[in-house]
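[job 4471] stage=fold_predict status=RUNNING
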Amino acid sequence: MHSTLSTGLTSLAALYLLSPRSHSSWQKLQTAQLLYPENLDWDPIHCKLYIRYGCIATLRRPISANFNSTVLVYDPYKATYDILSFDGITGVDPYHVSGIDYDATTQSILISANSGEPFVTSGSNMTGGNKVIRWDTNTNSAAYTVDLADFTSKLAINNSTGGGYQDFAEDKEGNTYVPSVFHVPAIAKITKDGELSSWYIGEPSSSSKYMYLGIIFHEASNKLGITAPYLGTFLSFDVGSSSPAPTNVSMTWPADGSYTASDLECDGLLNPARYNRNVLLCSENGLQAITLWASKDGFASVEYIGKVMDNSTTDIATWGSPTATVQIQNSIYISHEYFYDLNEFDVAGNRSTFPFVDATADFDKLVLAAGYNVTDC
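[job 4471] inference complete, writing structure tokens
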């Protein structure tokens, strides 16, 4: 498979890194109209932001699900950007890029180019291709492209067909772990050289909720932490185990019942270096908030320490769903997707600005109040 790195776009729109303290000093990035970013991560070596560039639908066909499947690479210091496109994926329905994650071990960006059908049909249509690309940020080329078809075929169990992929995490050896979102809780493993294996496959579930969503790696405990909405809990997996199995994470929920196990989704999950990897930032679409969970025992247990509602603009408060957070230097930004711009799920309107909001001060306040540390890089 060939990939293309290009610069310059027509039909421009605006995306901002927005500081709530100084709206007059927004950093403005010119990008393609209908950007609709959902996921992103920061390359701290080359100081570039990789953004899932997910043109949900074109203006000419506003009711279609025409996923663009490219990745925008932004250099905020030079105010320049490139676009990564992939032969056989970019512009090919039903592929869409949903997952973006930086791996420090291999200095690579992991990209999930997966079928959009399971997501737009809530798991009723599980067809379409699914691939994971490791993009080497030093050579600006694909180190591997792994097809998940073999793993997905093993998720056809009895009357269930598992699959649907959008996120991943990487351990200290450069292995990538890819969870299944629908019907069968499962995790694929891809080595840094691109070898695929079925690392964990659980029992099918009849639950209408997602199986696995946001996932992180916690190096100090050598564990994966993963959101299991169908169980209403976080789970951990020991990546050093020869027989990996999920362990329930003990969770202390708010006593007032304002946030319960039935609410847990975490479309995105991040354990930022700023909080010494001991705090989870959970992107809760349904609550339109980032909820914070902290641990003092390597994620054997977590306590809820608060939430941050992003109401920085009326537009965000009305339409924005927080889907991811990202740490850039000493700041943590919230990224939003606008799923209902035309009052229909996953159909783009004519939106032309996509602000990323700096919520560092709000996060820091909750973390410090709960007795955890904040560390500048």
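[job 4471] summary: Residues 30-369 form a domain with the Neuraminidase fold (CATH 2.120.10.30).
[job 4471] exit 0
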